[in-house]
Each structure stands twice: as structure tokens, then as C-alpha cells.
Amino acid sequence: MVCHSEKGKALTTLHAKGKTLAVVPKSAERGDDAAARALHAVLVSLEDSKAEDIVTIDIAGKSALGDFMVVVSGRSSRHVMAISDHLLTDLKDEGYGSARVEGQDAGDWILIDTGDIIVHVFRPEIREFYNIEKMWAAPDMDETLH
Predict the structure, then answer these.
(1) Can you give the pTM of this predicted structure?
(2) pLDDT per position as a tens digit, 55-81
(3) How many CB atoms lie within 10 A of CB 119?
């Protein structure tokens, strides 16, 4: 694993292969957490599918939608659909059951909801247009008031 530190606070990346843009604080409990184990399975599958620009956003406590959001790109509609199909198969094979899926018909933006993790698989131009990473990276109102 690749480690970084920021203002004296130890941080660790969630995965070491590929382009990693998100880091979360190290936590002893996180290793035992089911969401973290599922996230690891998701990231391994995405890397295996050659997903590009993988970004992980910790949304635990910020949203009731889940604990993590993962945003990735595929090079084309066909690649987006292949990444999604591979991820769904891997999740089922790993014992995570069937995830809810939206957008498989067009292949521009596929949303996969595992319960703990929400995965967005985009074509690059669609991802750039919606820019959901920026929306979720905005600081909480409580953080800006202190």
C-alpha cells in the first residue's frame, strides 16, 4: 500500500495499483468493516477490468446512500458495459449478492448500488459533464463554520 501524510496525519490509499485519487484516514476498525472489505473487492474488479481514473469517496456519515462512492471511467460504451458486467459477476462470486443496476441499456453511465458502495461507471465525456466527484468533495457546512 502507498502511504501519504498530510499535516502530520497518517493517511493510506485504498489501493496501490493504477491512478488513486482518494485517501482515507487509517483506522483500526476499518479493516474489520464489511463495507471496507466490499470496497476492496470492487476496486480489485475495477482494476482487473482496466477501469480508468478510479476515485473513491468516503460518504459514511455524509449520506444514507452508503459508506463509499466509487467513480470510474471506461474508454467507450462497450468498455463501460464490460466493466459493469465484470464487477457484477465478481460481486456475486465473492458472495455479495446481486446489486441494483441502472443505465445498462445505453452504456454512457451505469450506476451499481451494492448497499454499502455506490459505483458510477462513466464514459469520459459524460463523467466530465456531470462531475459528481466535485459535488461530493465539497466540504460539509459544519466544517466550513468552524
Answers:
(1) 0.72
(2) 999 888 777 778 899 999 999 999 999
(3) 30
H helices within the chain, ranges in order?
34-48, 77-93, 124-130, 132-137, 141-145
Mean pLDDT for each consecutive 10-residue tract of the chain (146 residues)? 37 41 40 78 96 91 83 96 96 90 92 93 95 74 50
CB 19 within 8 A of CB 56: no
SS3 label, residue 55: strand
- Classify 144 as helix, strand or coil: helix
What is the Cα–Cα distance from 109 to 72, expressed in whole angstroms?
A: 10
Closest by CA to 50, choosing from 78, 14, 75, is: 75
Three-class DSSP category at 115: coil
Q: Is there a contact between 77 and 121 (Cβ–Cβ < 8 Å)?
A: no
- The grid cell for 128 is 466530465
Q: Which residues pair with 116 in a beta bridge?
A: none
Residue 123 grid cell: 464514459
Q: Quick one: DSSP state of residue 20?
A: -
Rounded Cα–Cα distance for residues 12 and 85 (Å): 29
